[in-house]
Fold each of these.
Amino acid sequence: MIGFMMGYAHVMGAGLTTPLKALGAFVYGVEALVVGLDAMLAGALIQLGFSILLGILFALFVSRGTSTLAALCAGIIAAIAIWIAMDLFVLPYENPTMAARVALMPWAYFIAHLLYGVGLAMTPAFIRTFSKGRHDQERRAHGRARAAQIQSI
């Protein structure tokens, strides 16, 4: 998300670091636009923290067996819900500096959230990849137990 927003801001002439500074305004207020590196670091950490937290919450609602299409739909729906919540409720009250910057590029902000939704959609694939070894071990153990059960009959 932040990479897309930084690229878009740069191309549009707003400055490459403007999205990070706008996020940093959660901490520094409007001064984030001139503070510099501290505001950019705060903005990057805020974005990363929220993304991780929301990604974990999303992962709690999908399983390793979720189809790619279902995960994509769920990811996009979650991303749109996050976009609505941020745009209508969080930013106007908690970070008016960022809300003003988002108002200058609303479609880019929406597309960035859709990209985040596509990233969320990869969660079941990650779960399958990182739990594959454990799942295979459980399946083999179950197979051995079943074979022993059959032999005892």
Note: Helices lie at 2-11, 18-28, 32-35, 37-59, 68-94, 96-104, 106-121, 123-152.
Amino acid sequence: MLTTTSGFVLRKIPYTGSSVILHVYTKRHGLMAFMVRGGTKKGSSTRTTSLQALTLVEITFLYREKNQMQTASTISLSSGYAPGNDHPGAIPISLFLAEMLYKSLREESGDEELFEFIVNALNYFNGSDFSPDFHLIFLMKMTRYLGFMPDPDQKENCPYFDLLNGSFVVSQDASLHTMDEVESASFYLLIKAEFADRLSISNVQRRKLLTRLIEYYQLHLEGLGDIKSLPILIEVFSA
């Protein structure tokens, strides 16, 4: 059945000749792989040269439920897509988030609420002043949709955050993944933050918070593995 769905690009892999493989998280079917024939040809209805990580697109294809890879008929930028943020830090953040999303969103079924959250967040990122905290706040907010949102309720009496159990605890000995008091305080700020907020932390604290947040994901998402784009992102914010 010929169908059209919106989605955002997570990976683009050169194939043979002018063809490419796109991994796209779609509104209707979740994570999908598309064979795009002629994707690098000028004037092609499936031209992919300008498609970068997290670009919002509309894809028309003949949906075959049993196929692990679909063949795209046409690809175009979504009418709701906002051009990317032109700050130098925006590209490494986009590449990092694309990798995190690709490794986190493994369901082969649509989740409209999650999809709308991601699209709205990305449009905010592209249309607003650059924030070095966006990726942190984004990943924290997404834990709600993935089923392991931290519980901040006990922070007043429990100064340590246990990454393994997702809650604030009395003792730093709660598990091998319990943060110290300073890190826990930063983590609490992140839990409460909105996209428009700027976290009152140093770049050193920001880098530590990022590695702890990834650790949190690794503990709660089986098979997440190492994040290859992390060293580049850390380098960008090393100043």
Note: The CA atoms of residues 23 and 33 lie 5 Å apart.
Amino acid sequence: MGDFNIRYSIWDPNFLYHSAHSDLLMDITDFMNLELSKLTNQVLTRYLDNQQNLNSVINLIFLRPKSSEYDNHSIYPDWKLISDYASLIINIAIFKEHIQTRKHIIVKNSKEEENFVAELIKAIKELNIENISKVEVIEQIIQSFANDIDRI
């Protein structure tokens, strides 16, 4: 989230145009697999004291798409106090979750450590890195290596 200082008709109903900056911002957030958060209340985010400039929407939140927990936010113009920016608020539920973990301990300078390091070196040497042309291939190699380490 942030003050992007970019006006665009998609998020500011008082602004009927768009610019190369808004197009670039949307391209970047799309590349990062983010979407503009939906407002629960359609109000402005910046309120100016002078009459030359119009109040506007330039503060935005981009979130992970299709996530029911994170797909909307609220704007509270009454909370701006002395600032000219309204507060953007999102509620994120935090669920209690137990994550199963394991610990492996190898005593330093032991025969077990020596065997583990030898097996690790062998697994590294056996990695097939001849055709790394895509990110997916790297991910497969890493997953295969992690599986090998789990078996050691």
Note: The chain has a mean pLDDT of 78.
Amino acid sequence: MSVPILWTSTFTSGSLAHQVACVSGVPFEARFISLRAGDHKKPDFLTLNAKGEVPALQLADGTVITEIPAIVFWFAESAPDSGLLPRDATARAKGIEWLAWCHWTMGRSFAAAFNPGYFGDDNAATSIRAAALKRVGKALTLAEDTLRAKGGTLLATPAPSAPDIYLSALASFAGMLKQDIANLAAVNALMARVAAMPGVAAAVAREKAHG
């Protein structure tokens, strides 16, 4: 193995890591597995990532990195001029702060909205989903206010950074949840900017081609 392998699944949270990897410009190989088919629970993949989750980044030396913020950080470190994270220590820490916030929000709110039964019994699913959708709305309102205050990006950078790519993915998930985000002008503007990034467009095209 001469380049890192990014194990992911099309149009899932793993797509975010795929997009960041493409934006970084770091050579890597994308390998797609099917969550629907249960590939992430099969012995071969569990040997790679015992958590049974995507994404997972397998480095050339055999090291495996899991969790989106850690994978994003690796690509940012490997491509310091990519703009994925600022070079200034304080701004960089703020970038990681927003990555952590996005990751926590996805796990705590979006995941519960998509699959409430995972977080409680079937009798509680309706209330769990309703509460999760409220948290989704509050999170996106916070993001909208921050984008407005920072001039369009979470870190006030001229171009979208890794946290912006993550936020854009969250906003797209909101659409899948039938959440109306038409009034979030700054969030929608950011989503358009992220979608136009060549690396992001390349990742989306690859996933569409893979089916």
Note: The chain has eight helices and four strands.
